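forwarding from the other thread:

> can someone predict this with zinc ion?

sure thing
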Amino acid sequence: MKLLLSTQSLVHAAHCHNLLLAAGIRAQLRNTWLSGAIGDIPFQESAPQVWLVDDDCEEKAWAVLAAAANPPAGPSWCCEGCGEWHEAQFAACWRCGQGRHR
Ligand SMILES: [Zn+2]
């Protein structure tokens, strides 16, 4: 078991937990009931935490969270070569190979 992250927000912790599970990474949500104890015990020990069941999944876990935090930005674009529409993250047309112009 390895502590992945600790956050003040239970919503944020639960969101990250769900993203990891959806990606097939085994994780546990802890300290979901201790918010009333903040002030009595050190914050980092009382804040909601996300733990990894498998320690060696940390790199993959951060990649999953980073990808979720930075979704492809920008509008879809239309290929000038063939008229195919593409999501913003694609730099070239998959159908005819022409690069993105706009
Ligand atoms: Zn094209």
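The beta strands are 2-6, 27-30, 49-52, 77-78, 85-86. thats all i got for now
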